[in-house]
């Protein structure tokens, strides 16, 4: 027993390793330039041809280096070179491949040729696939499964190497996007634009059907050409300026072929040694630990030396210290530790203890963290301020809306009756109230599908939806409910009763919301409809059935949302393009909205450069949409992020995912605060122990007394 | 006894087939292969062609249970059910729909689950039995009544309250252990203290009351009266005679859960950031990953059957009158 106690004591002492008792990190991390952050959901894919989710990009965008990126500091969002040495040169050609001038009319442009020059000398992260033996041959390209015993990660191989990134790697990755075995989500979109891409993909599919994974170089792809080691060209059908935005996504990162070959060796997949699990990039970080059930660790890529901190930003960035690190080599942090935190409570408490450097704010903690002033401005509470915590906010390039199904005989269609009914409902459902009650004020009521920060969004009176709002005292004011009732009566439903059938008007909302937490939102929505005496029936269903109903057009109203792929109005306005109708074409227009004038304007606007002409077309399109009201425009959520005083260079940027390389931590300051905030309180242990001892003594006495009495 | 064991193992086969069939039917009533493909491929920009390709490559383009177009035995084997389920009987769980090796995943996640479940189970068993014996020792006294009241109170509180309360008090206010997290080896000790302590406290109420009831029932039996008449002390009577004779009902409840300790606890692991198996099945159901769901249900049934067989075996150890034949 004594031995056991001694062992347990030793164990306890060794476990405490001299640090704070509640410090979740090892003492060896002390004083190091490490960023501690969390993730709530494990990434599904880490292959840049497959990944498309925000949580996947949070890692991948820091590992891979596509040709372009968003400027970290400048607003509105601006594309700048990342791996490219300069912005791509675009040449237009007619159908006979004759070069056209830059200002050639859109209908004459048959092809756009993007010539991309990459920076010479960029190198990949250290990886065994690049390791060479003494004779200069790849060291690990003929491995037997038995040689992989004890290998669980690329870091378990004895040797690693690197090599220079070349244009062929970029071209190879584009080919991978068509690989049918990878199911890249953008194959469909790219096959509409990259010349020869659809044919190339079909050839690969035919080859795959024959049973063997095809060699991606064995089939021609006319739209992608490698000019030399640092230059490649992509040919696009017609004019598609938005293509440059795609070049800023990991889909267009370089992929070294030897890495794919390395992972295809027998025994690798069984050990989760795949490109989808262990990405290999040329970006500022590489994945050194991948345990998505616990933590994922990014380590500085020792060969990344091609980028420095920006020298210019927005007005005010200098004053807020965001340019203090100008010209410094990136990344500024050596290591990033992502820990899995599925629940918000431990995540929040660890942030308050100083064990996470930044945190979002859940509804439960909102009042503890943030105060909202009379003018609607948000600032941190005194408790947060005392800890040196600051708040940064940004409006997401997302829109959360409620769609009307255009194919529904009651709420859909272009008739005057249906239009007025939709307008009446648009006035009645008060999204300002919704944001205030259910989002703690974190949102901006939408005036159209276009969120703030995107070309086409207008501030002030010019930007309001005149169907729903009046401009009063310099503010948009929702029209009175009497206006909604008037529109409803004009639609043939005076006081919510169908004047033909004399039956009350009943509208169905399809939703996947069915939990206890959703009840209050749905009750609120029923009340909004009740304001104009319309009955709302909520049809809750599971996710699959809901998606199925939307695909079949078997809904009246439904909740939906869209998160921008890139900051261009086309990426929002296409959600209402008739050619994107969900039922007819399987596209992204879930409400199946169709208006010939809108569709015509969309075709004209979608490939235009930003400018007054494009803006005028967008204004007209928005006017059509506001009048037709195919959506309740909903709201654009606001992101609130808290960060500790020892974290520098944090500026909200909703488009860029590769922000970590700009951030800087002061580990000494962090340690001082952690020590101050986390001194162990031992009194409860002593009190508890003493109480147990007293109880034991009392029981012993009682027993003795009882035995004596017997 | 060996014949008995072989018989029980053979009985297990139709049970496992039945469980598999039921899981398969329930899963595909809710999810179609199209839904699964959409879940894997994402909801943005997914074309019908991409869905068809995914189903083809993952083997979900075949009929569910019976293939009319195939010939002979192929009518049964050229189906999703056969191709996704047969290999499990030789414990080949294959790959999840997102391409991960399920066996490796289970192997990696099993140990953290066990790191919490095993100490909670062992210390808990010792503590609950001891506490129940103390209550029995002081039966019908103020201490016993206080113990029972404490048990009823602890039973009435939700498990979530213990977790949140424990994290608040021990980690947030007193700073004694990390709020959540996990580490392997000796470093893992401080991460395990809180979940184990909370696991112990949340189990006191129901377990100690159950054991107390068993012990009280034994206390009224003749052998106890005989032991007392022989002049044995009350502690000796309880700890030597009553405890031994109460082993059969205790083992019935205890041994069956031993193999299932590997499966972890959803709530505990979720709140404490333990990378265990607790959430693996739930996550797979949410992700509509049939490969994981069927593997985990199969494993769960297998471990439960193993637990029942172990329970039968344990009877022979504590009661010489029991013979397995």
Shape of chain A: globular
Radius of gyration of chain B equals: 25 Å
The CATH topology of the largest domain in chain B corresponds to MetI-like fold
> Could you list the spans of chain B in which at least 5 consecutive residues all have pLDDT below 50?
none
Number of helices of chain A: 21
Name the CATH architecture of the largest domain in chain B: Orthogonal Bundle
Number of domains in the coordinates of chain B?
2
> Quick one: overall form of chain B?
globular
CATH class of the domain at 398-639 in chain A, named: Alpha Beta
Largest interface: A-B, 66 and 68 residues
Largest sheet of chain B: none
> What is the H/E string of chain B?
HHHHHHHHHHHHHHH
Q: Whole-Å distance between the termini of chain A?
A: 32 Å
Share of helical residues of chain B: 55-70%
Strand content of chain A: 15-25%
Properties at a glance:
heterodimer, A: 710 residues, alpha+beta, Dipeptide-binding Protein, domain 1, Dipeptide-binding Protein, domain 3, eight-stranded mixed beta sheet, 21 helices, 30% helix, B: 325 residues, mainly alpha, MetI-like fold, 15 helices, 70% helix, globular
């Amino acid at each position: 027993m004594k031995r056991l106690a001694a062992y347990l004591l030793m164990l306890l002492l060794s476990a405490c390793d001299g640090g704070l008792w509640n410090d979740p990190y090892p003492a060896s991390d002390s004083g190091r330039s490490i960023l501690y952050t969390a993730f709530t959901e494990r990434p599904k894919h880490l292959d840049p041809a497959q990944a498309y989710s925000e949580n996947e990009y949070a890692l991948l965008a820091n590992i891979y280096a596509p040709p372009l990126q968003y400027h970290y500091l400048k607003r509105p969002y601006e594309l700048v070179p990342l791996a490219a040495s300069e912005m791509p040169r675009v040449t237009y050609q007619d159908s006979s491949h004759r070069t056209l001038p830059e200002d050639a009319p859109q209908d004459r442009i048959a092809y756009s040729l993007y010539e991309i020059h990459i920076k010479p000398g960029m190198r990949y992260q250290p990886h065994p696939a690049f390791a060479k033996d003494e004779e200069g041959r790849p060291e690990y390209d003929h491995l037997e499964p038995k040689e992989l015993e004890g290998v669980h990660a690329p870091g378990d191989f004895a040797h690693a190497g690197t090599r220079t990134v070349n244009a062929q790697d970029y071209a190879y990755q584009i080919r991978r996007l068509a690989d049918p075995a990878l199911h890249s989500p953008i194959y469909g979109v790219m096959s509409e634009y990259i010349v020869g891409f659809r044919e190339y993909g079909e050839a690969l599919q035919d080859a795959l059907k024959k049973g063997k994974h095809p060699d991606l170089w064995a089939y021609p792809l006319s739209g992608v050409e490698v000019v030399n080691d640092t230059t490649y060209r992509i040919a696009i059908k017609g004019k598609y300026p938005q293509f440059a935005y795609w070049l800023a996504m990991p889909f267009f990162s370089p992929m070294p072929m030897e890495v794919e070959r390395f992972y295809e060796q027998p025994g690798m997949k069984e050990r989760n040694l795949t490109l989808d699990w262990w990405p290999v990039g040329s970006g500022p970080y590489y994945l050194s630990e991948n345990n998505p059930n616990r933590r994922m660790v990014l380590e500085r890529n020792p060969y990344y030396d091609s980028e420095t901190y920006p020298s210019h930003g927005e007005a005010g960035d200098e004053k807020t210290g965001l340019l203090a690190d100008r010209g410094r080599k990136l990344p500024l942090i050596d290591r990033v530790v992502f820990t899995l935190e599925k629940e918000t409570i431990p995540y929040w408490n660890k942030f308050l203890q100083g064990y996470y450097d930044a945190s979002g704010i859940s509804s439960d903690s909102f009042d503890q963290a943030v105060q909202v002033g009379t003018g609607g401005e948000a600032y941190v509470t005194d408790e947060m301020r005392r800890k040196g915590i600051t708040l940064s906010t940004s409006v997401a390039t997302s829109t959360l809306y409620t769609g009307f199904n255009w194919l529904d005989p009651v709420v859909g269609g272009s008739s005057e009756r249906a239009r007025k009914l939709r307008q009446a409902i648009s006035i009645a459902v008060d999204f300002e109230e919704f944001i205030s009650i259910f989002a703690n004020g974190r949102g901006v009521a939408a005036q159209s599908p276009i969120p703030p920060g995107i070309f086409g969004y207008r501030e002030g009176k010019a930007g309001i939806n005149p169907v729903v709002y009046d401009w009063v005292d310099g503010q948009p004011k929702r029209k009175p409910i009497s206006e909604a009732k008037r529109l409803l009566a004009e639609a043939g439903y005076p006081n919510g009763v169908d004047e033909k059938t004399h039956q009350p008007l009943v509208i169905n909302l399809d939703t996947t919301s069915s939990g206890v937490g959703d009840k209050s939102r749905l009750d609120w929505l029923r009340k909004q409809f009740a304001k104009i005496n319309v009955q709302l029936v909520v049809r809750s269903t599971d996710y699959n059935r809901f998606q199925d109903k939307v695909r079949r057009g078997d809904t009246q109203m439904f909740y939906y949302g869209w998160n921008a792929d890139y900051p261009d109005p086309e990426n929002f306005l296409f959600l209402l393009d008739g050619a994107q109708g969900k039922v007819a074409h399987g596209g992204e227009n879930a409400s199946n909205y169709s208006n010939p004038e809108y569709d015509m304007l969309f075709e004209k606007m979608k490939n235009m450069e930003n400018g007054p002409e494009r803006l005028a077309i967008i204004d007209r399109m928005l006017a059509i949409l506001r009048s037709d009201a195919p959506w309740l425009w909903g709201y654009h959520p606001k992101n609130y992020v808290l960060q500790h005083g020892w974290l520098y260079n944090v500026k909200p940027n909703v488009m860029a995912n590769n922000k970590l390389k700009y951030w800087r931590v002061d580990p000494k300051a962090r340690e001082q605060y952690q020590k101050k905030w986390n001194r162990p309180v031992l009194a409860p242990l002593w009190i508890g122990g003493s109480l147990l001892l007293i109880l034991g003594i009392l029981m012993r006495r009682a027993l003795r007394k009882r035995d004596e009495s017997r | 006894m060996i014949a008995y064991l072989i018989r029980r193992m053979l009985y297990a086969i139709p049970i496992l087939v039945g469980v598999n069939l039921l899981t398969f039917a329930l899963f595909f009533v809710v999810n179609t292969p199209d839904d699964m493909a959409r879940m894997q491929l994402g909801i943005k920009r997914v074309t019908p062609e991409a869905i068809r390709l995914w189903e083809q490559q993952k083997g979900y383009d075949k009929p569910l249970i019976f293939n009319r177009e195939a010939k002979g035995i192929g009518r049964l084997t050229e189906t999703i059910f056969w191709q996704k389920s047969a290999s499990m009987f030789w414990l080949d769980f294959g790959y999840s729909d997102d391409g991960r090796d399920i066996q490796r995943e289970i192997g990696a996640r099993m140990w953290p689950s066990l790191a919490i479940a095993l100490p909670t189970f062992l210390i808990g068993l010792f503590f609950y039995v001891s506490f129940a014996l103390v209550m029995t020792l002081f039966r019908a006294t103020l201490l016993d009544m206080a113990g029972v009241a404490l048990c009823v109170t602890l039973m009435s509180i939700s498990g979530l309250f213990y977790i949140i309360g424990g994290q608040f008090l021990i980690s947030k206010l007193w700073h004694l252990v990390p709020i959540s997290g996990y580490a392997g080896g000796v470093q893992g000790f401080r991460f395990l203290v809180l979940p184990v302590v909370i696991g112990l406290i949340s189990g006191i109420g129901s377990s100690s009351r159950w054991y107390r009831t068993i012990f009280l029932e034994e206390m009224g039996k003749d052998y106890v009266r005989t032991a007392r008449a022989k002049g044995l002390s009350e502690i000796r009577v309880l700890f030597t005679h009553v405890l031994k004779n109460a082993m059969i009902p205790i083992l019935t409840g205890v041994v069956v859960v031993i193999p299932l300790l590997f499966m972890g606890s959803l709530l505990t692991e979720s709140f404490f950031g333990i990378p265990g198996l607790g959430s693996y099945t739930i996550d797979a159901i949410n992700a509509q990953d049939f490969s994981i769901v069927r593997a985990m249900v199969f494993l769960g049934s297998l471990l439960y059957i193993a637990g029942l067989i172990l329970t039968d075996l344990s009877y022979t150890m504590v009661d010489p009158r029991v013979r397995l034949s």
